[in-house]
């Protein structure tokens, strides 16, 4: 845990050099693109929800 949050690590079988710093459409983590719950520590709602 770090700052009261679980740390998650996923193996990236499709790793390509130059794409290791975020894979979502908006440059962040894919999981943050689709987050439906408000999380002030991670920028509020997910980017997909903010664009609506």
From TrEMBL:
It comes from Angiostrongylus cantonensis (Rat lungworm). PANTHER family: 20 KD NUCLEAR CAP BINDING PROTEIN, NUCLEAR CAP-BINDING PROTEIN SUBUNIT 2. Component of the nuclear cap-binding complex (CBC), a heterodimer composed of ncbp-1 and ncbp-2 that interacts with m7GpppG-capped RNA. Residues 29-52 have a biased composition (Basic and acidic residues). InterPro entries: NCBP2, Nucleotide-bd_a/b_plait_sf. Keywords: mRNA processing, mRNA splicing, Nucleus, RNA-binding. It is found in: Nucleus. Belongs to the RRM NCBP2 family. One of its GO terms (cellular component) is nuclear cap binding complex. One of its GO terms (biological process) is mRNA cis splicing, via spliceosome. Residues 22-52 are annotated as: Disordered. Component of the cap-binding complex (CBC), which binds co-transcriptionally to the 5' cap of pre-mRNAs and is involved in various processes such as pre-mRNA splicing and RNA-mediated gene silencing (RNAi). The CBC complex is involved in miRNA-mediated RNA interference and is required for primary microRNAs (miRNAs) processing. In the CBC complex, ncbp-2 recognizes and binds capped RNAs (m7GpppG-capped RNA) but requires ncbp-1 to stabilize the movement of its N-terminal loop and lock the CBC into a high affinity cap-binding state with the cap structure. One of its GO terms (molecular function) is RNA cap binding. Transmembrane segments: none annotated. Its main location: nucleus. The keyword RNA-binding applies. The keyword Nucleus applies. This is Nuclear cap-binding protein subunit 2. It comes from the Eukaryota.
């Amino acid at each position: 845990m770090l700052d009261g949050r679980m740390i998650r690590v996923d193996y990236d079988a499709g790793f390509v050099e130059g794409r290791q710093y975020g894979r979502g459409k908006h440059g962040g983590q894919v999981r943050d693109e689709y987050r439906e719950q408000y999380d002030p520590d991670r920028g509020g709602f997910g980017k997909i929800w903010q664009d609506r």
